[in-house]
Amino acid sequence: MQNSTAGINLDCGMSGSHQFIFILIPIVYSSTFVIGIIGNSMVVAVIFFYMNLKMVANIFVLNLAISDLTFLITLPMWATYTARGYQWPFGGFLCKATAGLATFNLYTSIFFLTALSIDRYLAIVHPVRSLRFRTPLYARITCVVIWLFALIVTVPIALTRDVIYITNTNTTVCGTLHLKIESTKWLKELLLATSVMKSLLGFVVPLIIIITCYCLISRALLGARHIQKSSRSRDDEVLRMLAVAVLAFFLCWVPHQVFHFMELISQLSKEKDCTLEEIIDTAMPFTICLAFFNSCVNPIVYGFVGRNFRKNLLQLLRCAPSGPARPHPSISSKMSTLSFRASEVLSLTTKSKASSDIK
User: Fold this and answer.
1) What is the pLDDT along the chain (359 residues), one digit of tens a residue?
2) Which residues on adjacent β-strands are paired with residue 165?
3) Which of 59, 134, 169, 292 could form a disulfide bond with 139, CB atoms 3.0-4.6 angstroms apart?
4) Which among 262, 263, 213 is positioned nearest to 238, based on CA atoms?
5) How many other CB atoms are there within 10 angstroms of residue 305's CB atom?
6) G-protein coupled receptors family 1 profile domain location, by residue (predicted)?
7) Beta-ladder partners of 173
């Protein structure tokens, strides 16, 4: 807490301190918390009680929902912090923990989406060769690696956050360590490294992998359509479900990534631009709201889009037993079935090409 007692003066004043932010943002945070907790809890419960946990897709979706729940518990603190006019009352440890969990959720969400995209690519394009890799054991190992790697790359974020007292505005904020507090070379390098890592590992690289997977899937399915026209609607449904998940993440996180990049440029600049800082600090809370809302979108994409999810949910609410003989179909099981059908079509395409070569 020594940083709090020392205090700093902001060169450009308290940018982004507007009364409408202190009213609107807490309402959005509270709504996101309620919707996200209910939605993700339903997804976890339905997957755990009514779906096959031996399926790779179900394992990834379950971990994604748990990741969102882990982050959502911090939203009441962020809502309180904003409603108090950026006055942080929860101490240094919770400041580091909540800031770390926000970035931790960014990494885990995009990593699990990437893993799910790779799994769909292997299931559809390489159905036979991927069988030995697409097992529950490998899926669980992948999840453990994702959790650990996300934790490792999040630790520097937590280390650069602390409670800071701003003397010229008389506010105690939870923010990034200011270079005037610890004017050391390692802090400047660490802040730069975490910013670049957040943009690359948390957005650019996974997005490239996901888009590549979907392009390869689309090319494979389009090449197989002339063999079996009846698979058109089924294949389109697989691609739509995958595309919606990526599009939702893209729309929710792009604005924040853009302003985060602008903030990085502002930090590296030798000359202070108070007008630019005012724009960034005013827009950043809204981009963060949109990014946090992605935790509510995931249950909709992975749960409510499935035709049988509502049946499973109603059965759960009625406390009806699932029955070991015939588990209810789900969005993930449906995706696996469609992948198998698509694989059959691709197999037919390969055989057809082989036959034409022989002739």
Assistant:
1) 344 445 676 666 555 567 788 899 999 999 999 999 998 998 898 888 877 777 888 899 899 999 999 999 999 999 999 999 889 999 999 999 999 999 999 899 999 989 988 988 888 888 888 888 889 999 999 999 999 999 999 999 888 888 988 887 788 888 887 665 545 677 778 888 888 888 899 989 998 999 899 888 888 877 766 545 444 454 455 556 667 777 888 888 889 888 888 877 776 676 777 778 788 888 888 898 888 888 888 777 765 566 666 676 777 777 655 544 344 344 444 444 444 444 444 444 444 444 444 34
2) 172
3) 59
4) 213
5) 16
6) 39-302
7) 164
